[in-house]
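Much of what follows relies on a compact textual record of a protein's fold. Here is one such record, which you should read through line by line:
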Amino acid sequence: VPTQIDLVNARVDLEGRNAILKWTGTDPNKAMIRVYNSSYTKIKNMSLIGDAVNPPLAAVLFDNDNAALKGTNEKCTVQDVLIGRKYLADTDSGGSVNNGTPYGRVQNGILVRAGSYGNNDEHTFRNVVANDATVAGFNLDGDQHIWTSFENCLANGCATGYRLGSNVTMYNVQANRNSVADIDGIRNTEHQIFGLYIENPKLAIKSNRIS
């Protein structure tokens, strides 16, 4: 994938059938897949691997409004997607996270951008593994994506595992070897957690309101 794939003004069911997409671009401000103004879009059954030298902004970006359009991405789903590697132990050296530079590094696994009119809400992330994200495995950066749910997701070897700026519900959520925090609540939000499994934590839950 040499440049960003844009899903714009469409209701798409992007079924990978276990396909592998490898990022070969060099623009750090571009994502592998960008979703804009495309409610009910589904991204399923694929591996999205970045680049250790030029990691993309995100594997999947749910974008916000811009000067011309407001847009909405409500009720989108990402399911059965592996981000950052082809396999959990896939690195340049062929070893584990402690043995070599990760082969498919990204800045964010899934990034939901803030935006006053973005309506990036009611997302479902199911059976998604985010590896080696330099910012966050799952980054809900603003306040216009409430009622999101995480089901059977893993943030592995990231800086922050789950960066949450909205109300979310989490079911059987997992975190491993994240270097800053496993869950970082960055605003006044409500998080309901039903099953949280953490291995090799530095800081399990961090809460720091920002304006």
